[in-house]
């Protein structure tokens, strides 16, 4: 079972390069560091990992911003949408277009909603 753990950064990264990714700070107001750590600590030992609905990107964004946005999951959902439409008999270009449209508009729509409702509102 996958669960939230607290491991030393060097043990996780090994010889790989790491970087801090606060790229959403311009669009979403982050919590103070104390709150981010508190939110992460509250989840120690918890599970229910799901690649599309509750992955590591969802977790860190929830800790930092209070919403569960995952660019990885949005991309996966757009692929699933296109595949489902194709399986239901939609013409290939329609299925492909629907997947691309979802991928194109999901993140900007989420940013717009967060600007209006505040950074702790989750749309996707």
What does this structure look like?
Helix 2 crosses helix 3 (56-65) and helix 4 packs antiparallel against helix 5 (92-117). The chain has one domain (9-117): endopeptidase fold (from Nostoc punctiforme), CATH 3.90.1720. It has helices at 9-13, 33-42, 56-65, 71-87, 92-117. With 124 residues, it is an all-alpha fold. Residues 119-124 have low confidence and may be disordered.
Task: Supply the helix-strand structural class.
Answer: mainly alpha
By CATH, the topology is: endopeptidase fold (from Nostoc punctiforme)
Helix and strand run: HHHHH
Q: What integer is the average pLDDT?
A: 74
Task: Describe this structure in a few short sentences.
With 124 residues, the chain is mainly α. It has one domain (9-117): endopeptidase fold (from Nostoc punctiforme) (Alpha-Beta Complex), CATH 3.90.1720. It is built from five helices and no strands.
């Amino acid at each position: 079972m996958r669960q939230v753990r607290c491991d030393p950064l060097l043990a996780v990264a090994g010889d790989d390069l790491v970087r801090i990714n606060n790229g959403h700070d311009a669009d979403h107001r982050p919590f103070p560091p104390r709150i981010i750590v508190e939110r992460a600590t509250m989840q120690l030992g918890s599970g229910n990992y799901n690649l599309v609905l509750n992955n590591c990107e969802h977790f860190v964004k929830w800790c930092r911003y209070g919403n569960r946005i995952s660019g990885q999951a949005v991309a996966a959902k757009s692929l699933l949408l296109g595949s489902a439409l194709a399986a239901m008999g939609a013409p290939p270009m329609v299925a492909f277009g629907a997947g691309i449209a979802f991928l194109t508009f999901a993140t900007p729509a989420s940013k717009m909603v967060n600007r209006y409702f505040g950074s702790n509102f989750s749309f996707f």
